[in-house]
């Protein structure tokens, strides 16, 4: 098999062609595309592109249509002949094969629940076979999908009734935080099951008998909770304020923050709000953000102008990057990394082994895809706990407006 794993324009072109084929496997015409020569700025890049197309053609994966007469040296169009051969040529299984493998792995878990859980797995596998995500889970996230179906099967067996979320999560998965990681997709699916699509999460939890005791949200910044008797909570309180998720319907942003910063770890959050005064709204996520944190951030992000920077500061390790990606996938707009760089990890981090499971983030459009690629496949990988760094302002000193 030809090795074409080097990331360049030709490989990306073939990957896009394969994705088009997988997205619509029953299409009457094979997926095809014309090369974008404007993106190939040097003769070497053009030559490399042509070599890759010729290699794929010799492999039987594609048909290359070349120009006529004075354009005979150019490729007019590339057409997929055999998606399975193209996937093999690119060094990966087809989306259909991956979906089938993951489906088989999850069938045993889904079968422990009511029949509708297995039906949902079949529906999700159809989307995975087209290379799509299903309920924000891809076929590459097999471990997360297994956790999700474990929770769903347990809920279908009425095992959440009478328990709080953390206790139920521990009982079902041996992880107290698993439920929080999947709460929004669980709520969406169960809401449809009970005939109330789009129902509020609290309505869903009540239906399944879950006594959801949400943790307060810790933050510092220009937000407040107003009640009939006046201001119930002020985000400017020192060192920080605590707002319960049940109060979020009364929350408002009374002054535009200079930035929004989410922080993964408690010690770093404490230092940031105590040592940095820059007019930003700082929110503690507590690791993977609970549903209340996500709800608060969603409300704030749709309230403040898009030009207000949104950043996240977490550990430079597999967990930290997954939390960052979770924020990107579950909020109206994704954050930029704050103090999360390869350079800082190389300078202040500790030696660690590569984490290939981060490959899905490395291949995504995430703002930390390059960092994920290094942690997944790099040499001399290092992990950095955010507590090893001094807190820093997220806005330029001139913009603090503090006099």
From TrEMBL:
InterPro entries: DUF3322, JetD_C. Residues 36-189 form the DUF3322 domain. It comes from the Bacteria. Residues 238-395 form the Wadjet protein JetD C-terminal domain. The lineage of its organism: Bacteria, Pseudomonadati, Pseudomonadota, Alphaproteobacteria, Hyphomicrobiales. This is Wadjet protein JetD C-terminal domain-containing protein.
